[in-house]
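We modelled the chain as a single entity of 189 amino acids. Its sequence is:
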Amino acid sequence: MMHRLPARWRSLAAEVFRFLMVGGLGYIVDVGLSNLLVYGFGPFGIPALMSDSPLKAKIISTIASVVVAWLGNRLWTYSDRQVGSNLRGITLFFVVNAIGMVIAVLPLGVTWYLLGLRDPISYNISTNVIGIGLAMVFRFYAYRTWVFKKHPKAETIELDIIVPPTLDSPHRDAAPEQPAPAPGRRDAR
């Protein structure tokens, strides 16, 4: 089915697939770590380290997932694109992800503090479904538009340059070409 699509759509589909694969790994890191920090992992005796600070836990888990996302997107999803200097690329990436983190945390703040819903289901739906979903759409747009912007290839222009003969040119003794006489005219030599 993919071979029927125009090349531009196939390229976009491959980009979306790689973005989602990297994002999926980042999502596992984010969700796993945030739940571990807020609720612990009872079967293995791991206590909740931040049960009273879900926003801080979410920020920590988001930072960890951003590192995973940077490596995956830079080395795989957008490996064919130049980001300019590495400092510029990393700075843009972290600015975009800071905005994405705010987008992901807003639904959690509403659910936890305004609505008073503090159970694991409300927590996960607000931040790990709604928040991350909205942030993912923003990040995809921002990555391809600003962070890993595709730079058009420079076009080369071929010029025919006519160079007059110089003194050390092999053709310097040759007489310049004379125009052919007009038809019906005789040369007066």
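As a brief sanity check on the tokenised model: The radius of gyration is 31 Å. The chain is about 60% helix and 0% strand.
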